[in-house]
Amino acid sequence: MLWYNCIILNNKKQLFFTKKQKEYIYMKDISTIRNYELGFCLKIRKSLLQQEIPLLINELETCIIGNNLTKRGNTISGIHEKSSDYNAGKVDIEIIQPVLFQENIALSASIEIIENWYLKSSLHYTHTGNPQNLQNSANNLKNYILENGLNPITPIFNLPLVIPTSLKDIDTSVYELIIGIDE
């Protein structure tokens, strides 16, 4: 079981200000939340080419459907940056799906059960807008971590909170970026 502590950032205000302005904005926009928990989840992690990610998602979906599992919330995903396969054009991706607990789940070799995905210490950053700009928000979060001397212990996970139903509403997307940090 993992234990972390939570701080939330809101990207409506940018992180590029003078030191004095940053202190004011961070004090105003950061709040502490404890015990971030997804509970019972299925997890799959592989190093593969980016175009193969849909196959990985399909493998997880097949397991969920085949075991008649009920999803609890949206899928969370993260890319581990220090992958040995990075130079081969591969990404090391981790996908986590909260599901209702059920005994006797038949799993493929690459899927594992996490009995309680629980974060005690992490930063949360809300990205509102086009998902193509998620990397900018992730960079803002990374800059905050560097500026404050924090030690990340997980990749940045993306949790979609608002998924538009049509492309014309893509700018209404909302994602929560989550990264575990060492206390």
Structure commentary:
By secondary structure, the protein is of the alpha+beta class. Helices cover 21% and strands 37% of the residues. The protein contains three helices and nine strands. The protein has helices spanning 19-29, 53-66, 134-147; strands at residues 5-10, 31-34, 36-49, 76-80, 90-98, 111-119, 122-128, 157-162, 174-180. The chain has a nine-stranded mixed sheet with strand order 2-1-7-9-8-4-5-3-6. The longest helix is centred in the N-terminal third of the chain and has 14 residues, at 53-66.
Q: What is the terminal-to-terminal distance? A: 16 Å
Q: Helix/strand-derived class?
A: alpha+beta
Report the radius of gyration as a whole number of Å. Answer: 17 Å
The residue fraction in helices comes out at 10-25%
State the total count of DSSP E strands.
Answer: 9
Q: Flag low-confidence runs.
A: 1-32
On the 0-100 scale, what is the average pLDDT?
A: 79
Strand content: 35-45%
Main sheet strand line-up: 2-1-7-9-8-4-5-3-6
SSE order:
EHEEHEEEEHEE
Number of helices: 3
Largest sheet: 9 strands, mixed
Q: What sort of overall outline do the alpha carbons produce when their principal axes are compared? A: globular
